[in-house]
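Next up, sample data.

:::
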Amino acid sequence: MKIINNISEMQNWRNDSAKIAFVPTMGGLHQGHLSLIDLAKKNADKVVVSIFVNPTQFAQHEDFGTYPRTMDADLAALELSPTDLVFIPNTHDIYPDNAVFNQDEFAQDKALFEILCGKSRPHFFYGVLQVVRRLFAIIHPDVAVFGQKDYQQLHIIKHFTSGTEIIGAPIVREDNGLAMSTRNQYLNADEYKIASKLHKILKQIERGELDLQSATEQLQRYFKLDYLELLDANTLKKITDNTSKIAILSAVYLNKVRLIDNIIF
């Protein structure tokens, strides 16, 4: 496994005919990330994984400064995975001259950035799209793999990037059903048990055991609710007679920890 820290070396390495799959991460790797890498390897000759905590997707009051940075453990885990190359850029390489993302390009699609997670984190998806486009421009991957847990993010990346095939990977869960996330490290033992209620309640909606109002009341017993929505999974708009797939999407706060989850059926 090769480790590269600068753009020129990354681009020199890329100059061959191999099919490249890319998995962007912010580190703090867990089994969910490793499942993305396994899927990437099934779809390409070589796998590139990036580790970069992206400042543009954090608001000032969020956890950029305390976000788990576990580089030694991350590299050890990647050594045991089918990763061929790890790209670890610095902020100046990704954002030369403090480049600012032009949001005007998305004026007609603004609503997609403002629903669901975009309501409470209006900066977030612009920051994600900025770093993904920048990394794509450096690495030129044929395929990129993103987790379904961040379903709105996956939807936006599919719609607003080009030249790279985007593959969505299934959610990997803890034994108690909690969707794996780097921020799960913030949960104490009691909170970890409570956090599993989120997926269980979403499953009850899927099975028809709870309607949206009843599920909302259940969630509010354990969490501060950010949102709970049933939407068309292909458009993230209201369900219509033409809807073929439904998305149950939710975000909640458990004390200071924000949890998101979804079920697509």
Q: What stands out?
A: The first strand starts at residue 2 and ends at 4. Residues 2-169 form a domain with the Rossmann fold fold (CATH 3.40.50.620). Residues 4 and 168 are 26 Å apart (CA to CA). Strands lie at 2-4, 20-25, 46-51, 85-87, 143-147, 165-169, 224-232, 246-254, 257-264.
